[in-house]
Amino acid sequence: MSATLVPSDRPSDRSQQDLDRLAELAQDVIRRARAAGASQAEVAASIDTGLNVNVRLGEVETVEHNRDRGFGLTVYFGQRKGSASTADLNPDSVQATLDQACAIARYTEEDPAAGLADPARMADAFPDLDLWHPWALDTPAAIELGQRIEAAGRAHAGITNSEGASVQVGESLSVYANSHGFIGRERGTRHSLSLSLIAGDDDGMQRDYWYDSVRSAGDFMDAQALGDKAAGRTLARLGARRLSTRQSPVLFAPEIARGLIGHLVGAVSGGALYRRASFLLDHVGKPVMPSWLRIVERPLLSRGQGSGAFDAEGVATRDSSLVEDGVLARYVLGSYSARKLGLESTGNAGGIHNLIVEAGAADQGREDFDGMLRRLGTGLLVTEVMGQGVNTITGDYSRGAAGFWVENGRIAYPVEEITIAANLREMYLGIQAVGADVDPRSHLLTGSILLDKMTIAGE
């Protein structure tokens, strides 16, 4: 590991003082909202800072420093709701935001589902989830790191051009407070490295990339390894062919497989359900996946990409199964959607937290990527999908794709300009195995996913 990748302590970390200032501001605005006649109020305030450097062909393309502030207020006058926000934390702007939210609430229609979350559900424990790892990387060091990453990739024979390397440093401070007396502070860091390359031969050019995203810079893959990975992926796509139209087993690489889990989350989320716009409507307690498959939410993972002790409404998060033995165990709800459905919040206002696919295969334990290729046998490995052809209402799935044709458990040749299609309901029930090759760069944690069959449309 290069010394420039190791995080170092800043001379002065003011994050706690900044959180205290945001908390004091939030509490003061809630008091003023109540004095203005609001029966309930909630505030979300944030400060995001970062550095983003882009390097291409060894030269600096862009250097961006950001310090963004956000302040959002929602007030309730009974069951009438008004919301307003500002990116300016000075007193006049905050007061104007309060006045605007109150004015909106006085003239909106009553909504029986409106209001804060149940006060009994507010979080009262705030464990250290190890999310705060400031990276004291100055601009010259970030540029040098980007140049090394790009140089590592461009050194491979066959790489003809570069779309650039990126180095991003990010810190986020946020406070959520409401008139139940709840106040929650969160601070987290998120850093990333990426590289996109172009390779060419007599048959044309191909592009691919790789990236890494971590909470702590000490967890990054080595700069040389990232460059090698991006180059290897790009070169492997040379000589891509089209396939004839057929049906075959399909293996989704881990970074693509998490999209399948994301579609499941979307289909069982409150907004789609109370609008009756989901193919999994009324499916709690019914099989949606094979009986050996389990998907569990673990919000309190140390350094997790989606970790948090409370959701966007202050509701305490907890470990909870989404799919248990193939059966849909619950929906994904905040308090508003829960009230619309006559249910209770699942602590998911603002989204899901660290959803983990805990599965193997029907007849054996989990396998690494090579093992999953052997299970696939002969079929399609998908490493890229394109387009928005997913219908959450019907479950129909049809997307452009690229990847590799696999024969006898070994990659035979790259493929491109194909479309893969099926219905998500059948796709989920047709899962044959989930690999141990988990991609850790997301809050949706899954290995590669093998499906029994899909239609491949090509030549």
Automatic annotation (TrEMBL):
One Pfam family hit: PmbA_TldD_1st
PANTHER family associated with the record: METALLOPROTEASE PMBA
Annotated InterPro entries: Metalloprtase-TldD/E_C, Metalloprtase-TldD/E_cen_dom, Metalloprtase-TldD/E_N, PmbA, TldD/PmbA_N, TldD/PmbA_sf
Name of the protein this chain belongs to: PmbA protein
Metalloprotease TldD/E C-terminal domain sequence ranges: 246-458
Domain Metalloprotease TldD/E central: 133-238
A Gene Ontology molecular function term of the record: metallopeptidase activity
BP terms from Gene Ontology: proteolysis
Originating species: Dyella marensis
Residue ranges occupied by any Metalloprotease TldD/E N-terminal domain in the UniProt entry: 41-105
The organism's place on the tree of life at top rank: Bacteria
Similarity field: Belongs to the peptidase U62 family.
Gene Ontology terms: cellular component: cytosol
NCBIfam families per the UniProt record, alphabetical: PRK11040.1
